[in-house]
Amino acid sequence: MGIEEEVARHYGTAGIAARVLAALREAQGVDAPVTVDALAPLDQFHGRGPLATRELVALLAPQPGERILDIGAGIGGPARWIAAKCACHVTGVDLTREFCEAAEALNLATGLADRVRIIRGSALALPVPDGAFDAAYSQNVIMNIADKALFYREAFRGLRPGGRLALSNLCAGAGEPHYPVPWATTSETSFLATPEEMRADLVAAGFEIADFRDTTAAIQEAQQRNRERLQQGTLPRVAADIILGERAREMQINSLRNTEEGRCAMVEALVRKPG
Ligand SMILES: C[S@@+](CC[C@H](N)C(=O)[O-])C[C@H]1O[C@@H](n2cnc3c(N)ncnc32)[C@H](O)[C@@H]1O
What we know:
- It is built from 11 helices and 7 strands.
- By secondary structure, it is α/β, with parallel strands linked by helices.
- The protein has a 7-stranded mixed beta sheet with strand order 3-2-1-4-5-7-6, sandwiched between helices.
- α7 (148-158) links the parallel β4 (133-139) and β5 (159-172).
- α3 packs antiparallel against α5.
- The protein is globular, with a radius of gyration of 17 Å.
- S-adenosylmethionine (SAM) binds next to α1, α5 and β2.
């Protein structure tokens, strides 16, 4: 089995949209409206959930009417949030069939199907025309990508001249991560580059670096809060719990240990395709 099939097998389970909607009703009542705000803790599948998306959006600064590409869109939470809050059109590309199906169901449930389009495909051969997007972003995806140079070249190709790319990337720290983690069951599908390698790959793809910051400390703080939640074993649930099911607790605890022990780092960056 190739890397992409393994990655999709790691993430994909049946019935994700139904589980997300059930968790929403459990948290907010049977008549809870299905809005991007209500779903935000439940459909954004990355450390720090909506808080991290807000930071990435502040970096990307999407403008009304812009065409935005989400590379590795998951179940579409960040794409819906940005489409709704910034009045943009977002196209999400993702490898995992069950995630694309869940994203489409949740687009319909939130009334955003006309502004968020989902395409099943690979970040390494983006199913989009050259120069089609004003801006792009990718949140917690690169750790599943072995060929990062190709990932950045594809993002570059999809952007118009002057287009920007915002990234929230898990990076390598010192030492091997403990597995399983939310993004990989074993090291076979986990590929962490150092922040220096990330910067070099971006420059080699042709990007100009506008902003590049280490946000590991912010992650550590949030993970401390998550540790308390996991130790108590209580609600509120987050996207990782719903998507990963029984496996989530051990994976999230390993994630906490990896950050605490300096095995993983986090980088947020904004880069531009020269205009
Ligand atoms: C941790 S999830 C993050 C999802 C989403 N960005 C979010 O923050 O909610 C990682 C996502 O990357 C996707 N992915 C991993 N490798 C990919 C590839 N080569 N092409 C497209 N998507 C990929 C997975 O299917 C998964 O949806």
